[in-house]
Amino acid sequence: GSASRGLNRLKLISHSKHAANIANSPFAGSLRAPDHFLYSTTAGSDRWDDSLPSQFSNTPPKDARVVICGGGIMGAAVAHQLAQRGWGQHTVLIERGRIGEGNPWHFSGLLGELKPTHSQVLLAQTSLELIRDLHAKGLPTGWKQTGSLNLARTRDRMTMFRRMKSQSVAWNVECEIVSPEKCKELCPLIDISDVVGGLWIPNDGVGNPNAFCHSLVQESLDKGLTVAENCSVLRVIQKDGRIKAVETTKGTVECVYFVNCAGFWARQVGQMSEPYVKVPLHSAEHYYLHTKSIPGLGDTFPVVRDLDGHIYFRENDGCILAGGFEAKAKPAYEDGEIPITTAERKLLPDWDHFHPLLEELLRRCPSLKDVPLERLSNCPEAFSPDCKWIIGEAPEIQNYLVAAGMKTVGMSAAGGVGRAIADIITQGYSTVDLHELDISRFLGLHNNRKFLRDRVREVPGLHYDLNYPFHEFRTGRNLRMSPIFPALKEAGAVFSQVMGYERPAWFDKKNAYDEKGSPKFRTATTNGFGKPHWFEHVQSEYENCRERIGMSDYSTFTKIDLWSKGNEVVDLLQYLCSNDVDQPVGSIIHTGMHNRHGGYENDCSLARLSENHYMMIAPTVQQARCKAWIERHLPPGGRVSVSDVTSMYTAICIMGPFTRIMLSELTDTDLSPKSFPFFTCKELDVGLANGIRALNLTHTGELGYVLYIPNEFALHVYTKLMEAGQKYGIRHCGYYAMRTLRVEKFFAFWGQDLDTFTTPLECGRMWRVKFDKRVDFIGKEALLQQREKGVERMYIQLLINDHDPDLDLWSWGGEPIYRDGRYCGQTTTTAYGFTFKKQICLGFVKNLDPSGRALPVTNEYVLSGDYEVEIAGIRYPAKANLHSPNLPTKYPDQEREAYKATRDKVDESNLLAYRPNK
Which residues cross the membrane (predicted)? Predict the structure, then answer.
C-alpha cells in the first residue's frame, strides 16, 4: 500500500480505536518486511541483500571447550572475544536459524557510552572501541559518529543532566550542557519552544547490529570458530554441578563451558537443564517508525532523545527512524510461547498503542507531518525485571554463563559484555565489576512468568524516566512479606522493596488508612533531588534509635545455616573467610569472603551456634549470590550442609540505650555485659516464645539486638516488645533511618560501598583480616602484596559544608570528589547526618598524577588535602574523616563506643570541626 499521504494521514488513522480500521488503512500493506535479510559487504552501507550464501557448517563437532547458544550479536561478540584469545578452534557457535538473522526495520542501532553506572559505561566504551576498530579495518558495522542530543523539558531533567555531566569526568565521557538555542543549532529539525536545555555527547553514534554481527563472526571464522546454523539446542547436560555436554538437533557436543546468548529465548534455554537456570526475561512490544527519504538530512544528523516525551529519532540512510519507550508497555507473547523464526515473530503494529509516542514525535518535529511514511515495525524486545543486563555465571550450574537482556541496546553492550564473558571463561574473572548485572541477583520469584508479564509493563519506560533516588517498582508488590507486615502497615509503614521483600522505608501515621478504615499499602517515593518530603519522619526515627528505643524489621537480610558432623564447616569457612572464624561458641565474627584478588565477594556476620554450626547473616541482595559462592567451594561428598533459612526467620532489630533493660523484662536470660557481651549471640525465650537467636549487634553501631525469631512466634514477640517498650518510648523505624545511622557511623555496606574490586585495605578493615590463622584463605596472597605495595584508593567519610539542606540539591551518591581542585574519586553512599547536621558522603579517593596514573594513597595524603564534592555542577567544601566518629549522646555506652567499623586507630581530632579551604 502507498504511504505517500504522509504522517498527517497517519496521525488521523492512529486515532482509530478499531483494529479493523487500521488493518484496512492505506498503510496496512507497508507494514510487512522481507522474512530474511543479510547485510551487504560494503563497509558503512545501510543497504541490504538477501542473496549472500551461507558460509557456515550445519553439523557441530562432538566436543569443544565452549558452546555458545545464539548466533545474534551477543553470541557473535562472545565468540569473537574467545577467538581473539586463541580459543576459536575450541568454540562452537550454534544458531537455530541463520547467523545474524535480522530485519533492517527492527533495530535502532543507537550507540551511546553514557550509561547509568560506571560498570555499564566501561562495557559500552569497550563495545564502541571494538566497533571503531572493525570499521577502521573496512569491515561493515554501519558505524557513523553523529553525536547524541538529549533534550530536557523540566528543571529536574536538567538537574539529572548536570549530575550526569559531573559523573562524566570520572567515567571519561566527553559531554556538554547546552542551551535550547544550541540544541536547535545541533538539530534544526526540532522545535525548542518547551525545551529548557540539553546534554550533548559528541562521540556517540549509530551502527547496524546485523552488519556488526556478521563482521564479528567473519573475523572469528578466520581464527578457527565453528558455526552450526539451523541447529537447535535441545538439552544442556550437567554432571556434579558442572556443564558436561549440550544436546542439539545435530548431535551432542561435550564441552566445559556453555554460554546462553539466546536473546528472546534465553529464559526457555535456561529451562533446558536440570536444575533449570533462571534467566528472568519477558518480551514487550517495541516500535520503529520509518519515513521515506528526506532531502538534506545528511550523515551528521544527531541521535535526538526527547526523554520527557519518551521518544528518540535518528537519520537512517537519508530517512528518519524513530521510536520510544512508553511509560506503560504492552507485553508480547503473554502465554510464554515465543515463535521460532523471525518471520513468525513479526507482530502487527498497534497504532493506538503507538499513538502517544507519535504525538510526542510530531510535537518535537512538527515538519514531519508532511513527510511520507515507509512503515511502522513492531519488533518485541526482551527486558529483565529490573531493566538491567543479565551477565555472568549461573548460580545453579558451574561454567554455565549467560549474556542476555540487553533491552534494545545490544550493539552498544555486545563488545564489552562479550569481553567480560570471555574473561570469566579464560581467566576466571572479569576485569569489570559486574555485581550489579550478575545473574545471581535474581531469585526464583523473579523468573515467575506472571510476575515478569506484569513487570515488563513498566520496565521499558525506565529507560527515559527521571532517575530519582531510591526508585521503586509499582508491579510485583506485596510478594514477600514478614509475618509482622500487617502490623507494620497498620503502624503507618511506607514500603520499599528489595529482593521481592517489602520493608518499611519510613513510618507516617497520617493518611495510613483508606476511606473504609483499613490500613493502606503505600510505596515509598523520592520525587526530587533536593530535601525529600520524608525528611522529618526519618529524623524523628533516627532520634529514637539514638536516645530511646527504635524497632526495625530486618527480615530481608540473607540468613544461611552451615553445619557438619565434624570440623569440615570450620575448615570451609576458614578457607572462605579472611577473619578467624574458629572462635568460641556464641561468638559473632564479622568477616569478608574474598576472591583471588582480595575483593569482596561477600561481607557478612557469622554467629557460631555450636562447635560445627554457624548462622551467616549477609546483605539482602546476596541471597542467591553468596550461597552460590559457598557451594562452588564445598568439599566433595556432602560433608558440609548449607541451607538458606532466610524465609524461616523474622528478624526484629531493637536499638537504643534502653534496649537491654526492656528485653530483660521479657526473658529469663542474663543480658548483662558480663554474661551477654557485645558481638556475641545466645538463644533466648522472649515472652512465651522460645528458640530465638539473639545477636548483640545492630549493623548501625547503636546499642541493641537483632532477634531472629521462628516465623510462628514472630507476631507474639513483636507484640510483647511493643507492649514492654511503651514506657521507654519505643517506636517503629524504617530503612532510611538505618541508612543514616550507618553512614554517620562510617559503616560500609556490600553492594553500595563494597564490591568485588574493593579490598579490606582500601576500606579500612584490615584489622579483621587474620593472616596468621592456620588456613590460607582465598585472596590472602593478593592482600599481602597490596599491604606491601600500598593501596591506590582509600575509603573516607566527607562532611559537606556551606550547604543549605533546605535550598541546595542533595548528594545522592556517584558525585565526583575533588582534592585541591583536582578530581580524585567518587561518593558511594550518602545521607543527611542528624547529629552532624550536615550532608555526609562515603566514598573512595585516589592519588592521581597529572597523566591520570594512580599512585599510593596514605593517611597523610588524605588528611592533607582540601576537599570538595560536586553536586550537579556545584562544588561544596568538605571535611575528610578516616575513622569512625564518636557521636555525642545523652546515654554513652562503653560497648558501643569501643566498636569501630572502619580502621582500628582512633582519631583524636575534633570530627565536628570545620576547617575552611585555604
Answer: none
According to DSSP, residue 635 is labeled: P
User: Which residue blocks in 271-385 are alpha helix, DSSP H?
Assistant: 342-345, 351-364
What is the C-alpha separation between 194 and 360, in angstroms, rounded? 12
| Domain containing residue 307 | 141-208+283-382
Q: What are phi and psi of 78, to 5 degrees?
A: -65, -45
Helix (H) or strand (E) holding 560: strand 558-563
Question: Is the bond preceding 805 in cis, omega lying within 30 degrees of 0?
Answer: no
CA distance 616 to 563: 11
Cα–Cα distance between 659 and 493 in angstroms, integer? 22
352 shares a domain with 218: no
Quick check: 693 and 707 in contact, CB under 8 A? yes
Q: How far apart are CA 684 and CA 707, in angstroms?
A: 9
pLDDT tens for 307-340 read 999 999 999 999 999 999 999 999 999 887 787 7
Beta-carbon contacts of 838 under 8 Å, excluding residues fewer than 6 positions away, are: 799, 800, 801, 803, 832
d(CA 70, CA 72): 6
Lookup: cell for 466: 527521571
- Residue 660 has which C-alpha cell? 537491654
237 & 364 share domain? no
Q: How many Cβ atoms are within 10 Å of 57's Cβ, its own excluded?
A: 14
Opening angle at CA 198, ends 194 and 200, nearest 5: 150
Strand order in the sheet with 66-69: 226-228, 91-94, 66-69, 257-260, 400-404, 390-393
Residue type, 392: G
CATH number at residue 790: 2.40.30.110
The b-or-e profile of 701-724 (16+ CB within 10 A means b, else e) is bbbbbbbbbbeebbbebbebbbeb
Which pLDDT tens digit goes with each residue over 473-484? 999 999 999 999
Which runs of E-coded beta strand occur in 123-249? 144-145, 148-152, 176-178, 197-201, 205-206, 226-228, 233-239, 242-248
Give the phi and the psi of residue 461 in degrees, each rounded to 5. Answer: -65, -20
Whether the Cβ atoms of residue 736 and residue 495 lie closer than 8 Å to each other: no
Q: Are 504 and 487 in contact (CB under 8 A)?
A: no
pLDDT of 883 reads 87
What is the helix (H) or strand (E) element at residue 311, kind and residue range?
A: strand 311-316
Q: Has this prediction a pTM greater than 0.70? A: yes
pLDDT band at residue 298 using 50, 70 and 90 as cut-offs? confident
Residue 426 domain-assigned? yes
Residue among 419, 470, 416 at smallest CA distance from 121: 416
According to the model, what pLDDT value does residue 283 have?
93
Which residues are CB-neighbours of 422 under 8 A, at least 6 positions away?
A: 78, 81, 82, 84, 85, 87
Query: In terms of domains, do 880 and 808 share one?
Result: yes
User: Helix, strand or coil for residue 199?
Assistant: strand
Mean pLDDT of the chain: 90
Residue 610 phi, psi (nearest 5): -155, -175
Domain end (from 365, 382, 399) = 382
Give 251-293 as a DSSP string: EEEE-SEEEE--GGGHHHHHTTBSSPPP---EEE--EEEEE--
CA–CA separation, 229 and 93 (whole Å) = 8
Contact partners, residue 774, CB within 8 Å, separation at least 6: 574
Written as nine digits, the cell of 170 is 570520572
- CA–CA separation, 303 and 317 (whole Å): 13
The count of structural domains within the chain is 3
Total Cβ atoms within 10 A of residue 391: 27
CA dihedral 667, 672, 675, 680 (to 10 degrees): 80
Mean predicted confidence (pLDDT) in 38-46: 31
Amino acid at 104: P
Same domain? 233 vs 149: no
Q: Which of 878, 904, 898 has the alpha carbon at shortest distance from 886? A: 898
Cβ neighbors of 138 (< 8 A, separation 6 or more) are 43
